[in-house]
Amino acid sequence: MATPTLEFTESQKESIRRLVLFMRLTAGASLFLGVVLVILGICQLFGVGKHDASLAGFLPLIQGAITAVMGAILMTSAADVEFMITTKYSEIHLGNAFENLGVFYKFQLGLASFLIVVGVLQALFSTVTAAIAAAVVLMLVWPALALAGTPPPREEK
Questions:
Q1: How many angstroms separate the CA atoms of 25 and 84, rounded?
Q2: What pLDDT, on a 0 to 100 scale, did the predictor assign at position 28?
Q3: Mind listing the pLDDT tens digit for each residue in 100-126?
Q4: Averaged pLDDT for residues 58-74
Q5: Which of the residues 58, 74, 80, 83 has the least number of beta carbons within 10 Å of its own beta carbon?
Q6: pTM for the full predicted model
Q7: By the 8 A CB rule, do 71 and 31 touch?
Q8: Which ranges constitute the DSSP H helices of 2-155?
Q9: DSSP secondary structure letters along 60-86
Q10: 88-109 b/e with 16+ CB inside 10 Å = b?
Q11: At what angle do helices 58-86 and 91-124 cross, to 10 degrees?
Q12: For 114-121, which contacts have Cβ atoms below 8 Å and span 24 or more sequence positions?
């Protein structure tokens, strides 16, 4: 049995096109910022330009990688949302779009939680102790966050 197709009105399609545009602009800005931060981190690590070589370059390197990953996830979501209006689609494509957006927001939630823990630990302890404690918390909590958002297997009809 075929999955029913969903149709949008022209005004709904225009709203979705605007959403896709803003999603792509946000994703592009995130990817660009991520690449810039990675480059700055590498420059700081190796002492390029006005920077002295410093391990502090790991911070922008990590920030850049995380920002770029978030941009890539959002770009994937934008493609799924656009697919809904450019072709006749079944409800599975709508599910894919929401699933990708769910991954994006879970990633942001995990990152925000991690940064809160790091901030609290830095306020209580030295920076090195806070970094070690935050890494341990991240190793314990991240798999739980990943599993919590895993959708149940889909039944084939």
A1: 19
A2: 92
A3: 888 888 888 887 777 777 767 766 776
A4: 88
A5: 58
A6: 0.63
A7: yes
A8: 10-46, 58-86, 91-124, 127-148
A9: HHHHHHHHHHHHHHHHHHHHHHHHHHH
A10: ebeeebeebbeebbebbebbee
A11: 160
A12: 114/138, 114/141
